[in-house]
Amino acid sequence: MLYIKMYEYKEDLNLYIGGKVLDLVEIKNVSFAYHDEKKETHCLKNITFNVKEREFLSIVGPSGCGKSTLLSLIAKLLKPSGGDIFIKNRDIEKSDVTIGYMLQSDNLFNWRSIYKNVLLGLEIQNKLNDENIEYANYLLDKYGLAEFKNFKPNELSGGQRQRAALIRTLAIKPEILLLDEPFSALDYQTRLFVSDEIATIIRNEKKTAIMITHDISESIAVSDRVVVLSRRPASVVNIHEINLNTEKSPMKSREAPKFKDYFNLIWKELDYNEQ
Fold it and tell me: ω before 233 within 30° of 0 (cis)?
């Protein structure tokens, strides 16, 4: 797959300048408020953090604090009330970086085969060419879904469906993946397995990921850093760099001695902000 190797090599060239990992996303003093005819509801207040290339960053915070709103701002579905968002040092409104968005539901269409579902994003973006089709087939084969490509979604397990949804997102070659509680619809045992699998795929494909989750353990297990938000209007309470001194495997991470220390620290920060 020559074009895949060239694609990865191009990413390697863009990743560093002078040995320093680049910031792919910069959030600077971002605020957001919802308006209706009766009142203004402040959701985010002076949010500031960055995301480096190929980093897996998780955002945790109290329920209803504005985590999904923050992803919508990065996806350009909403505009900030204040502050700035930059992608590759360009204002987000001028950025042409491709962003992939995974929601809580896999949103696979049951009347289409898995293969047709995987190609859907390419169809919508008018990118259904030979090279992109080859790349989609490569992903299906690499991640164990090639033999299921002619199955319908309701014939697959929850984990397989999430894998198919991720492959559909990866097929458009996004530079940034936004994950909005992508495992919350799964039972606990399946969730552990699928989160491990999806995080491993994202790292294998050398993607930058921003995930919101209410699961502290999940955020520690899969992430390079965890951003903790306060209750609404959300501000940044703390940013934890996760260093467990173990291999980059979410399942292995949970066995690390330092795992419980991160958990207790983040739990206390969230518990204080729930008061």
Answer: yes
